[in-house]
Structures are given as structure tokens and as C-alpha cells.
């Protein structure tokens, strides 16, 4: 019974660590994508929007 408790603690810790890493990567992707869009796409194609 003790080994099952140890296994459960390890699994909870492992999935918690994976969740933290996935959240950090998702946040990094969202922030970098928005910064790229602001710096390049919106600036480059701004003149096309002014014509409409």
C-alpha cells in the first residue's frame, strides 16, 4: 500500500511539472507571436489599410 502512495505522489508531481512547462511554453508562444505581429505585420501592411 505504501508503494501505491509513493507512485501516486510521483505521478502527481510529474504531471504537475509537465503542466507548468506546457503553460510556460504556451505563454511564450502567445507573447512572441503578438510581439512579432505588432512589430512586422501591422507596420508593414499599414499602408494597405489606409486605402480602404
Describe this protein's structure.
- This protein has helices at residues 2-44, 46-50.
- The protein is mainly α.
- It is rod-shaped and about 70 Å long.
- The longest helix is centred in the middle third of the chain and has 43 residues, at 2-44.
- It is 92% helix and 0% strand.
- The protein has two helices and no strands.
Task: Describe this structure in a few short sentences.
This protein has about 50 residues and is an all-alpha fold.
What topology does this entry show?
Blueprint: H1 2-44, H2 46-50
* Rg result: 22 Å
The 3D shape can be described as rod-shaped
Q: Structural class of the helices, strands and pairings?
A: mainly alpha
- Helical amount among residues, as a percent range? over 70%
Q: How would you classify the quaternary structure? A: single chain
The helix/strand series, from N terminus to C terminus, equals: HH
DSSP, total strands: 0
Quote the average pLDDT: 83
Q: Report the uncertain regions.
A: none
Strand content: under 5%
Tell me the span between the first and last alpha carbons: 71 Å
Count of individual helical segments = 2
Q: Sheet bearing the most strands, described?
A: none
